[in-house]
Write a structure and sequence with these properties.
heterodimer; A: alpha+beta; 5-stranded antiparallel sheet; two-stranded parallel sheet; B: mainly alpha
């Protein structure tokens, strides 16, 4: 039994409108052939409409997704475009790391400033007068009271004997004068000075100290440590880290949008003239 | 310029059905669609979108080409290229080996279709 012509025309018209949903390149290349194939199928009495319409509908829904994905792949997955984007992303990452690392190092090195002067001055006094008399002299100069290492931002001094046992200090942590790791003494013994980040309390409530350790030479050798809690410096480092992170995300976003825009602008096109 | 090579992976049912249909000669879209739908063509339910999407990619891969001859300006005819013939032969050999293996395992009757 033949199908009514009006219904065929209407179905063709609906299918033609639906074809507009395919990507432009695909549509220019194949829409007329697809329309003709659908027309041929409608006119073929051997293919029942109850079989044809679900087939075409299902095919339309799956192929439209597939062709749009294919179009996106052709537009944005071009090696030159991806290569350029990756190079720019690598540069942005390097720049963001530098934006973090350079100020972080300046802040960290700056955190040693008063301690260097304090440690060298104290080592000089102890070398000149000997540790016993020198500590007496230094105690006269130092009238600031005992520093709480975990809370105070004041710089402090600790004098250790040659075995690394504390002789005198103006700082306490949990009621005691903390001891440095043996490796720091060993290094300072051979290099005269060491600048370290000392963590007498590790973990989530860590106390970190910017410490400068000087060797005391002479008859009573030992070590002078000048330190200061790094809490404020680390807060500034965290601000720098956040700013560098935001800058990095911003640069990546600009690269992403730029790549999408450039990819879209330079996408492969098929014009009617090339059909 | 990209050099076309024979696909080494098993072909998709749509690509295989199109190659098989065009092995008979030049055909337009609806004839390919009907061939694919028939049991001899693999019973692949190809609609126009999948058909022309596959043809588009097969033309880019150099497996098929437009013949340039048409009985109606709205109908385009396609034919296999040499590469398309080779791809079809390779896929048929692969399927033939699989069928022979299945037959030797007793999964299919001896001596062809029953």
């Amino acid at each position: 039994m033949s199908q009514p012509a009006f219904t065929n025309t209407r179905l063709e018209s609906m299918y033609s409108r639906a074809l507009r949903l395919y990507p432009a390149r695909f549509r220019y290349a194949h829409a007329e052939s697809m329309r003709q194939t659908f027309r041929d199928a409608l006119r073929d009495a051997s293919l029942p409409r109850r079989q044809l319409i679900p087939l075409v509908l299902r095919d339309f829904l799956t192929s439209i997704v597939k062709e749009h994905l294919s179009m996106l792949r052709d537009t944005f997955a071009r090696p030159a475009l991806i290569f350029n984007a990756l190079i720019l992303a690598a540069l942005a990452t390097g720049l963001a790391l530098a934006l973090y690392a350079i100020p972080q190092q300046v802040l960290r090195q700056g955190a040693n400033d008063p301690q260097i002067q304090m440690a060298t001055d104290m080592a000089s006094i102890l070398e000149r007068f000997g540790v016993t008399d020198g500590l007496h002299q230094a105690a006269l100069l130092n009238s600031g009271g005992v520093v709480d290492m975990s809370r105070s931002l004041s710089p402090f001094l600790i004098v250790y004997n040659d075995q690394g046992q504390p002789l005198s200090s103006n700082v306490q942590l949990d009621g005691q004068t903390p001891t440095l790791p043996a490796g720091v003494f060993a290094y300072t013994r051979s290099h005269r000075e060491d600048r370290v980040t000392w963590e007498p309390i590790p973990g989530s409530h860590a106390v970190r100290i910017a410490a400068v350790v000087e060797r005391i030479s002479g008859n009573q050798p030992g070590f002078v440590l000048a330190g200061r809690n790094m809490r404020e410096v680390e807060a500034r480092e965290e601000q720098v880290r956040q700013m560098a992170g935001l800058t990095w995300i911003g640069m990546l976003a600009v690269i992403l949008f730029g790549t999408i825009a450039f990819g879209w602008y330079t996408r492969p096109r098929t014009t009617l003239a090339t059909r | 310029m990209a050099i076309a090579t024979i696909p080494t992976a098993p072909l998709s049912p749509a690509v295989f059905a199109i190659l098989l249909s065009l092995a008979e000669g030049e055909k337009h879209g609806y004839l390919i669609m009907k061939d694919a739908l028939s049991p001899q063509g693999g019973g692949v339910r190809l609609g126009p979108g999948t058909l022309y999407g596959s043809i588009d990619r097969m033309m880019r891969d150099g497996l098929v080409e437009e013949s340039g001859i048409s009985d109606d300006e709205r109908r385009r005819y396609y034919r296999l290229t040499n590469l398309g013939h080779a791809a079809l032969a390779m896929e048929l050999a692969r399927l033939d080996a699989a069928v022979s293996s299945a037959r030797s395992l007793g999964l299919l009757p001896q001596g062809g279709r029953s």
